[in-house]
Design goal:
single chain; 185 residues; alpha/beta
Length: 185
Amino acid sequence: MLKRILPVLFFSLPWILLGQNTEDPHLENNKSFSMILLPDPQNYIKFDTNQPMFELMTAWCAAQKNTLNIEAVLCTGDLVEQNNLLIPDGVNGNQTSREQWNAASKAFERLDNVLPYAIATGNHDYGYKRAETRQTCFSTYFFPATTVRVTPRWRTPHLSLNCLTGGKYLLLQQSLHHAMKFWVG
């Protein structure tokens, strides 16, 4: 038994020792800034046990705002596994779509009034299961109409949105179906 464990320990030791970097992240050039990319949150959001990991990611972004001079947080979309599924199958998640949308929204709330963030919608954010329609629940959970007042700023398709609770959004729309909303503080 010892003959099997010893080689594993020997080859694992450098990674164990070197992987214990306790130095806080920092920028080498004080004129630098950071933009944080959060790809495909649905992989954390679709199972309830993984949701706290995504919340930790957004909390980390907020906590590192000054240390890393974070200018914005960008999300590539696919916030949820299924946009409008009532009964989860246990394979593609154990959360209903409503629970997934709530978890994603809650995680991004950590950035509200702290950091600007941009969220793009992905194919999983449309339809019932797999983008079979162009319907999305995105605006129900992110930037709901009850919290913004639309102010045309440029010629369409660009709009500035003022949040009634403070802060502003910038809506960039490339086409009727693809929009990116940007919290600008």
